[in-house]
Amino acid sequence: VGIEGGCARQARLTFAMARHAVVDLTQVFNTPPSAEPVDRLPAAALARLKAALAVVELPGVAAGVVDGKLAEVRRSYEPYVAALSRFLLLPLPEWDYETGHRDNWQSTGWGRRTSLPPADHF
């Protein structure tokens, strides 16, 4: 959404594959797509997301191109993800990033971390 160039094709293929997997899983579990999925990206969260993207100067973000395209992309998969979430009893995460929260790969099941700090992959 809003990014063109070398990575755009890969992003489209990755999204298509992930969406196809989600649709297939809803068929396997016989869970039809949700008619009224919960909006996990309210206007305030969308504004924060666009502000964060504008900082890195992604083309199309400041011009408002993202809103329509993002809504279109989300409509193509969110009903299926919502259905799987209810069926598998796995709540969907919010779109907002929690600061101070460590990713699961940055900790262990025993509560100890290695002496070396994890590399920042992002």
Describe the structure.
The chain is built from 3 helices and no strands. It has a domain at 7-90. The radius of gyration is 17 Å and the shape is globular. The protein has helices at 6-28, 43-55, 65-88. It is an all-alpha fold.
Key phrases:
mainly alpha
Gyration radius (Cα, Å) is: 17 Å
N- and C-termini, Cα separation: 19 Å
> Which descriptor suits the 3D outline?
globular
* Secondary structure: helix percent: 40-55%
Oligomer: single chain
Outline the low-pLDDT stretches. none
> How do the helices and strands follow one another from N- to C-terminus?
HHH
What's the total number of strands?
A: 0
Total DSSP helices: 3
Report the structural category: mainly alpha
The overall average pLDDT, rounded, is 80
Biggest beta sheet attributes? none
Beta-strand portion reads under 5%
How would you briefly describe this protein structure?
Helix content is 49%, strand content 0%.
